[in-house]
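Task: fold both queries, return tokens.
Query 1:
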Amino acid sequence: MRARSDPSHPTPIPADGPLHAHLVLSSRFENIEIAERALIDLCEDAGFSGDDSYWIVTALREATANAIRHGNKQDPEKTVIIDFRVHSGEVRIRVEDQGEGFDLDTVPDPTDPGYLLRPSGRGIFYMRQFMTRVEFSRAPGGGTVVEMTRRLGAETRSSINEE
């Protein structure tokens, strides 16, 4: 991510150059705002629409909250590592926690009638709705890695439902 000396006169970025940021945050919910702000800045610098940015940031918020709550068990001594890369109309986000990992097959489907009224449990569902691609894997030292991509102009589940 680039620094701006005068926010009212941003330095132009070459259209073909990648934008990226690397964050290492302690597992505190208030740090989600830091990650959101970094991603919003990258999306603005890349010229993304407000709608695209909103859905991308919502997916980031869900992934980061899951890393803090479920992965790191809200232990502020553990970190969440977040990488952003914006290039050629595509946003890639990688969120890694230091938890024990989980089995994706054991996560209930929030659209099942028995789970519709539950106040939580929709994070993975939302990520999949708002992003073009979402993949889960084990981090090399343990924990979970979530990699998400959104291509501008590509259909996502949420864009299909808007029509």
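Query 1 returned. Query 2:
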Amino acid sequence: MRIVTFFCLVIFSLCQSACFQVKAKEPVVYKFEHGRTALLRDGLAYAPKNAPKAVIKAIAAGNRLQGKPYKWGGGHACFNDTGYDCSGTCSYVLREAGLINGCLTSRGFLDFGKRGEGKWITLYSRNGHVFMTVAGLRLDTGGDGSHSGPKWKPWRRGVGGYIMRHPSGY
């Protein structure tokens, strides 16, 4: 009986992160809504007036990454790097907003925070890539067939194979 219980617990713990995830189903599409979403103007994002302080800080951090190149491993060994990869970008923004300590890999974001879509911040993660939306605006290093570096991207992005996570309370 103890062996059966042990194996059930092992199987449950192994399946927990994969079985209880919320899969992203709808493409990410930016549509400006006054007071609810960030405004994108000339490549920079502006937070809605009613956004929480952490969201304002996240948007400011994302703005600081604009123009940085894609750099595999960028943002992991050095927080203020010359370039950033996908997980380095998301880690930088969340760290600057006070929502994480350190840095996560794209795989590490599979278990980050809470399951599902957030009210203000959502991470879309799969093994090998992660991107995020902050106040409805996508921050991504890809999505257009290239590794373009961190950029606010208002155009549509498919989400096949991604799961959604969000920082608690956001």
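Both queries returned. Flag for query 2: The two ends are 43 Å apart (CA to CA).
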